[in-house]
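Key idea: predict the complex, not the pieces.
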Amino acid sequence: MCGIVGYVGSREATEVLIEGLKRLEYRGYDSAGVAVLNGSGVQVRKAVGRLSELEKTLSSNGVHGGVGIGHTRWATHGVPNEVNSHPHVSFDGKLSIIHNGIIENYRELKNELLEQGVAFKSDTDTEVVAHLLAKAYDGDLLKAVQNVLKRLRGAYAIAVCHADQPDRIVATRMGSPLVIGLGEGENFLASDVPALLKYTRKIIYLEEGWLAELTTCGVRIFDADMKPVEAAVSETSLTLDAAEKEGYEHFMLKEIHEQPRALAETIRGRIEGERVDIGELQLDPEMLRGVNRIAVLACGTSLYSGMVGKYLLERFTRIPTETWSASEFRYADPVIDPGMLVIAVSQSGETADTLEALRIVKAGGARTIAVCNVMGSSIPRHCDATLYTRAGPEIGVASTKAYTTQLAGFVLLAAGIGRTLGRVDSAEEAKLVQGLRDLPGQVKSLLDEDIVAVKRCAKRYKDVFNFMYIGRHFNYPTALEGALKLKEISYIHAEGYAGGEMKHGPLALVEGTFPTIAIAPEGKTREKLISNVQEIKARKGVVVMVSTHGDEEARELADYLIEIPACQEELSPILAVVPLQLLAYYTATQLGRDVDKPRNLAKSVTVE
Ligand code: M6R
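Result:
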């Protein structure tokens, strides 16, 4: 979490920093700050709240100079106030630092500094690093950073500048993302590429432990042993438009409406005639034949896509598959063997728990595949192969297009692996491929048709305190995801259950005004779910049903009916979740919530 930006060049640094921070605000939005060097020391400005507050501060009390660092914060250590905001300044007032991540051993380092008489201003872990660096500095900032790194445990992306070396920024990373942008006579750094798109498309993805020194003359990169590195420079294909709202009120709504295009991108070139083609992953058939078990590791919405993925993988490959919350997996003393194939799912590719779980399975000899949206991010770089979902930048904290494209990715993976193993017959594959081809158009028609019904439903139920979502088999994860979307952006309590669990407890919640969203598209568990709905209706509960077009029984039963196009059961989670995304969105907007930046959350969870 937190976003960091740095600039060296001849522009006004604050303008570049603010522009970059705007693109990174999705990573944290409790407070923000900048530090600028202009030959007369370190000038720091901070403000609590959104970036707009910092802009106000800068317009009344500006700072000028061509070298600077900026930060937008998601608080980990210390409440969001001005003192705890970054940048932090060392005890001698000369060194300034921004940090994304957590210094796990900060307490012990802080005690050591306190004993040496260093006075602390903030409650943050980051301030410790500022003081350590100031103590280590002997005229060479790069060397000071290299020396202090040896003392730090945890995850960090750090950028530092010093009043006595006012022409440079030194940066490094371990477990948190950091990219370098190359310009002509100017250079940049940021947590994520969109922050730099206005200025450059030439990007260096910094590897773990590398150090970078940015000046107007160039960027020098070193590995952890200070050996110079010739880092590869990539030309990013991301565009600024992709990171703009383009007329939509919120990024989330834009991203919901981008799903037809995003899905078309996910399947582009991966279906040929009547076959699935995931040859780009170069999965060795021998390796696949040796797989005795698949584990899907992910967090949040990506975990729910992994739950659908489990059903798809077992359906098409017949390999036993388990799904794990990565945060549980890493402490579960999991059994890992070389016959295990691990699929790590992540929109950002930077989620700390997923990344750590991945390290554990790699150390155990498992094979790894990433299903990921962000090119060049850490999770794909740690995996043997990657299926990029190609959804384009997802800025809204609530994940939408990343989810549906992950689901499409799992269909491709499951069918592709299944065919390699000879476990999918060609007629079945042809049907699935046709279903995939139809998907973008079906999602488009759903978005065009259902908005009115969903808006009406949101208006009717926005003031209730609790919601229940139920589904079965492929759509049990849809229930979990629908509930997560609602609680995360509207702050209404919502829970997802497997329909078959109702009688084992949750049914006790049902009474006159209690709303249940029942996801019951055509498929082998539809009738079972209809029985669950009957039981709710018999107890006078209110039911919103998501059903296949033309389901008359659902029409009779439901208090509100939301219809989705007919499709194969395996693809139904992709269609069924779309009205649930809209329901969450319209409920939240009618309640006046900050949809793109819900309270207490951040887009990328890069700390544990
Ligand atoms: O980037 P990732 O997919 O790894 O992120 C995982 C979760 O943090 C993420 O899905 C989160 O649950 C979303 N805010 C849900 O909308």
